[in-house]
Specification:
Largest sheet: 10 strands, mixed
CATH topology of the largest domain: Rossmann fold
Oligomer: single chain
CATH architecture of the largest domain: 3-Layer(aba) Sandwich
Helix content: 40-55%
Structural class: alpha/beta
Distance between the termini: 18 Å
Shape: globular
Number of helices: 10
Order of helices and strands: EHEHHEHEHHEEHEHEHEHE
Strand order of the largest sheet: 3-2-1-4-5-10-9-6-7-8
Length: 281
């Protein structure tokens, strides 16, 4: 499995890299870190206009110094991976952060993108449609949004209606086959959708069987009510360490699939790491 960790100059992003190394410790994996350095002209002008050569040259030197320092911090964080015999390499790109992360992940066939704890920026990003939400909306791979460095002992995997399939379970089951955390499958039954009880129970049986094939002993539960509220309530009461969601996409005529806004709400409101599963489109 190839993991791409998006890092910046903050300590929070280095936490994401260390977390990835711990997550992959019992798995054959490659963990790479990508730092997208700012463009000098964009930094000074905010996207337009001319700047004198001397000013541009000074800004470029400062950017290169920051880049070198960040790369050194990445290499230090990578030591955890190297100690666990997991290849870990720093990469640097320049340009729009979201576009560069998405392009890098697609070009080199990464299986998952990891974004670090918010540190205040993720909330703004999800409200202002900046880097994190662009990655969540457009990534072709699962995206893991971290909150803090915590062992994964309890996982909640959420389904709704006929959406989701076995993809999220097939993804996490081998990932945690050695760690064996407690996994709960929750099907949110939204009454206005008129879901038959028999259908929900049949889905849970299939989902249970998927995890059992990997040696897991999952729990199952059915919640009735508002999708977002029921999930947040379950996470708060049971204190899960990881929330796993499908993208719950819907189709628009002549357009690509669009991620449900409820997924973004859950990422924004949850206090736990969230894995948004998405199959390569």
């Amino acid at each position: 499995m190839k993991i791409l960790v998006a890092v910046d100059k903050t300590e929070e992003s280095q936490v994401a890299l260390r977390f990835a190394c711990h997550l992959m410790e019992h798995f054959i994996a490659i963990v790479d870190a990508l730092y997208v350095k700012p463009d000098a002209v964009e930094t000074v002008t905010g996207g337009g206009g001319y700047i004198p050569f001397t000013v541009k040259s000074k800004v470029e030197r400062e950017i290169e110094q920051e880049t070198q320092q960040t790369v050194e911090e990445i290499i230090e964080a990578c030591a955890i991976c190297v100690g666990k015999r997991i290849p870990c390499n720093p990469f640097v790109a320049s340009g729009d952060p979201a576009a560069e992360i998405l392009n890098f992940a697609d070009r080199d066939y990464y299986d998952m993108i990891i974004l670090g704890p918010p540190g205040g920026s993720l909330l703004r990003g999800l409200l202002q449609d900046t880097v994190p939400v662009k990655i969540l909306r457009h990534a072709r791979q699962p995206v893991l949004i971290l909150r803090n460095f915590r062992p994964i002992q309890k996982i909640l995997v959420v389904y709704r209606g006929p959406q989701g399939g076995q993809g999220p379970l097939e993804f996490i089951a081998p990932l945690f086959v050695r760690k064996k955390p407690e996994i709960t499958i929750m099907h949110v039954q939204e009454m206005e959708q008129g879901e038959p009880q028999e259908f929900v129970e049949a889905c849970l049986r299939i989902e249970d069987e998927t995890l059992q094939r990997y040696g897991h002993a999952p729990k199952s539960m059915i919640a009735k009510g508002d999708f977002v509220e029921e999930i947040l309530k379950a996470v708060a009461i049971e204190r899960y360490d990881l929330l796993v969601l499908g993208a719950f996409e819907y189709n628009l005529p002549k357009y690509a699939k669009v991620m449900s806004d409820e997924v973004l709400d859950l990422v924004r409101l949850s206090t736990r790491p969230v894995l948004v599963y998405r199959e390569d489109q």
